[in-house]
Amino acid sequence: MTQPRKSIHGSWSSRLAFILAATGSAVGLGNIWKFPYIAGENGGGAFVLVYLVCIGLIGIPIMMAEVMLGRRGRQSPINTMRALAAEAGANPAWRWLGWAGVVAGFLILSYYSVIAGWALAYVFRSMAGVFTGATAEGVSSIFTQLTEDPERLLAWHTLFMVMTMIVVARGVKSGLEQAVRFLVPALFVLLLLLDGYAMASGSFDQGLNFLFTPDFSKITANGVLIAMGHAFFTLSLGMGAIMVYGSYLPDRTSVARTSIIIALLDTLVALLAGMAIFPIVFANGLEPGAGPGLIFQTLPIAFGHMAGGGLFGTLFFVLLVFAAWTSAISLIEPAVAWLVENKGVTRVYASVYAGVATWSMGLLTILSFSHWANFYPLSYIPVFEKYTVFDLLDYLTANIMLPLGGLAIAIFSAWVMRRRDSVQELDMGDATAYRLWHFLVRYVTPIAVIIVFLNVTGLVDF
Ligand code: TRP
Description:
Layout lengths: L14 H12 L2 H13 L3 H29 L3 H11 L7 H33 L8 H12 L2 H21 L1 H28 L4 H9 L8 H14 L6 H6 L8 H29 L10 H12 L3 H35 L3 H23 L19 H28 L2 H8 L4 H27 L5
Bound molecules: tryptophan.
Tryptophan (TRP) binds next to helix 1, helix 2, helix 10 and helix 14.
């Protein structure tokens, strides 16, 4: 038997630390900002159902595969894939999977940081009490004023990138582990509070109905792809973030149980967020398909009308910033780990290089909300008719790059890697559970991803 490798970057202090870090990566803007607005844009119930099925059949098995590959390789995803390809006697080109992940992470973080900047701005607006008693129109114009001002967006985006680079520079253990330990429970409490408010809004049933009663006439082929892409996005899969976190995982930890816990927590946060937001949308006669501004145009109404809303609003946006922060770190970690391994730079320099590059790319997103707000580069393609540069970046990464990355991870883990190696690394104890995982990753994930892709291009039609 081969000796397990060791990571040069250190490792988590315990299994709990890994769960917290991976949950911190998974739970982020994807759950609270993105999930509600894409569910709203794609008709609600049917979209949510497809998303949940994708979490169960694709997300959890792929998360197990990523953790397994990372823990076996014990390096940045690029070098992990190189080492594991060599071990399996496969083509060294598999390391390109690691590269594609680095690029995807860089593109995602470039816009993620701009949105996280909105959350930062909202911390200060809540604190100043600007939402107290505000109407839906008032809240909406506060949002537009922010997003249409490129200088403000730039300031907040810069602050968020600096925050991210500081934590990444300090390494996996100090900072990161501590932050998540408090964050995740606090976020749950605040979301429950908002759900309580939503229950009293008079439109709770209508909100629940929108989210949980599937109406398949409302979902398109593109909507199905968006739901699947979001399953990858929300669980941080398909680009090596969970792989690199897995590479810091202590040897004897149940990959299966850990992955299931993380996926359940993540899904719960998204559903709680949706259940808070849609009743407020309907109670105020707002549009569920309002787009990326949805939570920023709805939740402040709730905070503006509840007792202690100034305090809760501030706290909520602080937690949202933390949730985004712990996710941002994981988006850049694969690149930083690679720079340290291959370029011999310290973590500090690696973080600065990767951070500055991402920061510059973020300018495209900032422009998308201001000067380029009506610029639709691919308007000649029907699906992308109304897609801004930001929308396209998000679509390319979440709906194309991540599922393709997931497909490649599935093929590698269940077709290329030797079976005895995955048996050993997953160490499930239970042969049936292993066989179920292997079946899902070998057949279900690849076929599902391919069918959804073909469906959206119209090559096959369901
Ligand atoms: N999962 C995070 C969220 O929902 C975002 C994120 C972090 C991510 N790391 C990732 C998305 C890696 C894709 C890939 O907000």
